Amino acid sequence: MNNRRYRRKLGQNYLVDPVILFEIERAVNPQEKNIFLEIGPGTGALTKYLANKGAEITGIDIDPKNIQILKSKFSELNYKFIQGDILSESLEFLTSKKHRIVGNLPYNISTQIILKLIHYFEYIDDMHFLVQKEVAQRVCSNGGEKDWGRLAIKIKPFFQSSILFDVPPEAFDIKPKVISSFIRLTPLKESMIDLSKFKAFSAFIDQAFSNKRKNIKNNLKKFSGDLSNTNVNPLSRPEELSIEEFICIFNTMSIANY
């Protein structure tokens, strides 16, 4: 397998445009005492900008070749680089200190990464990611918008999210076929649901959107509970409901089996 095919398989589109890298640095605004987790640092294009501020960095990259390059480039600094898959690696080290999280996320697993990080909500200062624009719109949508759906609804109880700017394909060494967006997720001061209930809430939202043509009452037949105990119209379709209404239903329904 040639290098280009290998990198596409791993979702490796490296950001090389110095103007975009500068804009990312300005948006993240790294400070000397910050502690960063960088997801998919590649060969260290963004890492270099974080390092200039003297921040503490842990990087996780799936490619062992990249880990060798990173260790060589930053050998004089006390950084930790882990070779592994972010989806299967333990992230329990996040619980020791508050972390800021950054990354140029592989498009095919970006949503899975964000959802995994919700479990560490209490230990995150903020998150900045470069993702496919379509995913950014889904992550940052609000009730009533066309991209409002299960992804935003799972994130909304924990993070405030926004799209900062778009990034064209020409900014990468291997040009993706889509526009990318740089997004920010900032933890709410107090989550809208208890973190211990996130797994159940996630399953609940998946069920609520199991058939977008059906109303919310029909989609939630698996749960026991009476929608009349809420102010939600049972004939509403899931995409018509606000985050507050979803949480109200969630708190009313029995989730014993989830």
Question: Explain this structure to me?
Answer:
By secondary structure, this protein is of the alpha/beta class. It has two domains: 3-187, Vaccinia Virus protein VP39 (Rossmann fold, 3-Layer(aba) Sandwich); 195-252, Orthogonal Bundle (Helicase, Ruva Protein, domain 3). The chain is 31% helix and 18% strand. It has ten helices and seven strands. The protein has helices at 3-9, 18-28, 45-51, 64-73, 110-117, 133-139, 150-155, 198-208, 216-219, 243-252, and strands spanning 35-39, 56-61, 80-83, 99-104, 124-132, 159-167, 180-187. The chain has a seven-stranded mixed sheet with strand order 3-2-1-4-5-7-6. Helix 2 (18-28) crosses helix 3. The radius of gyration is 20 Å and the shape is elongated. The model has no long low-confidence stretch (mean pLDDT 91).
Summarize this entry quickly.
With 258 residues, this protein is of the alpha/beta class.
CATH class of the largest domain: Alpha Beta
Tell me about the largest β-sheet.
7 strands, mixed
Strand order of the biggest β-sheet: 3-2-1-4-5-7-6
The residue ranges in which pLDDT falls below 50 over 5 or more consecutive positions are none
Give the end-to-end Cα distance, rounded to a whole number of Å. Answer: 43 Å
Order of helices and strands: HHEHEHEEHEHHEEHHH
Mean pLDDT: 91
| Cα-based radius of gyration, to the nearest Å | 20 Å
Number of DSSP helices?
Answer: 10
Helix fraction bin: 25-40%
**SS class:** alpha/beta
Identify the CATH homologous superfamily of the largest domain: Vaccinia Virus protein VP39
Based on the structure given, which CATH architecture of the largest domain is correct? 3-Layer(aba) Sandwich
